[in-house]
Amino acid sequence: MTAHSSSHDKFNTPTIRKLLTEAFSDEDFNIFCYDYFPDVHKKFSTGMDFQSKIQRLIVYCDSNNLFDKLLMLVKGENPDKYAVFSSSLIKAYRVKSSEVPSEDLDIESSPQTDSTKSNDIFEKPHTISNKIFSSSKSILGDSPFICGGAVPPDLFYGREATLRLIARRIGARSLQSISIVGERRIGKSSLLNYIVTRPEHFLPQSQQYVFIYLDLMKGYCHTRPNLFRAIRRELQKALGWEPWLAEQDGDLGAFDFALEDMLDQGKSLILCLDQMENLTKRPHEFDEILEDWRANGQMSQMAMITSSTHPLADLCASGGLISPFYNIFIQETLGLLTNSEWQALLSDQFEVTNDDLAFVDRVAGGHPFFTQMAADALWSAYQNGIFNYNELYEDLLNQIEPHMASMWRSLSQIEQSTLREAALGRTARTKPDQRTLNSLNERGLLRDNHPFSLAFAEGIRSGRWS
């Protein structure tokens, strides 16, 4: 094993990046690199943002096997912040079969990543050596996987194409708004949370934007004054000054003047509105507001990134809105993670085998929520040291089936019929509506015209969700 691969495999770079971000100010980081990593400091250019500097240092340490030195120095500079992240700086690492005697480990060694071709991995026990290679964390610790709610930014994986689209639209000559549409639990809230907390990771000159996230399910977002109170408080935190007086909450004129004041200071507001359904279904409360925001969006005085389970045009029509709010948005549909994206989520947390990947693929098929559940189940199983994939699958099925059944019941009759034909392998003969087929593929319910996972297909074929 080369020095480079050893360093990269051992250390958790997303956590190191977060540690550096919170342990140093931009100025302190410049001094730190000047003192200890002069070769990196020489590559800093005028106007380079903080995150780009951090990335240069990480790449340098990765290439030169210097993470041990880096972490020792950071611990000396800021021991309190180091203590916060110390337990997750090194990946949990379990032993490969080639690294221990065969009697210690019984892991299937032949490559098998396509779980549709063989179920051999579900037929025999699976064991793990007790030897754990980690100085700060082992696979016997707490699971890093999130089985409900938005994932934290340091555990956000994938969506590279969507982030590039958002960067192009936000960073264009004139601000443009984006509507993120996707099924429940496909990762919309996680994406918006990442956009707000890590804009510097995907958006050049991110410092010129003020991102505000609003969870529109919250009760305080259901009335006009409280919605604007929430926006005012977030703006005050970001800007350091109050954009309008508290008694002006809900006053569209005060909001519009605040946007102009921000633009005068070189700042643009990006509102990230999660679960947009909660505004469009209250037209008497929000129709006038949405019309004002549409006008500001048209004039590039602000932009919005919304999330919803249905297209904005449909939401506006079903909610009875008068404003054509939806017509300034570019729509982006969120579907499944790519193979490389969901596999990186696992392999960056602990060393997985091809059998592990085949198991997760059978359960989740790239669906982010079910990937997290399957990975969490694997983590827990390895804590016991021995397990059977088939038994683990059956146990996990009891947890995921209610969620899959809910997905199924939310679909239209023609969508259910198309999925049923796909699960039974009859689409070539029955030739379902192509528009419906394309929509199901785009939304991640189908994967290459087949149900996104074997678990989903088995549930459809059983008929027990009808």
Could you walk me through the main structural features you see in this protein, from its secondary elements to its overall organization?
There is one protein chain. By secondary structure, the protein is of the alpha/beta class. The chain is 50% helix and 9% strand. The protein contains 22 helices and nine strands. The strands form three sheets. The chain has a five-stranded parallel beta sheet with strand order 3-4-5-2-6, sandwiched between helices. It starts with a helix and ends with a helix. The N terminus is likely disordered.
Topology diagram in text:
Layout lengths: L2 H8 L2 H11 L2 H11 L1 H4 L8 H15 L2 H11 L1 H7 L39 E3 L32 H11 L6 E5 L6 H10 L11 E7 L8 H16 L12 H13 L3 E7 L2 H4 L2 H16 L3 E7 L3 H8 L9 E5 L5 H9 L6 H11 L3 H16 L2 E3 H21 L3 H11 L3 H4 L3 H9 L3 E2 L2 E2 L2 H9 L4
Parallel strand pairs: 2-5, 2-6, 3-4, 4-5
Antiparallel strand pairs: 1-7, 8-9
Helix pairs in contact: 2-5, 2-7, 3-5, 6-7, 16-17, 18-22, 19-22
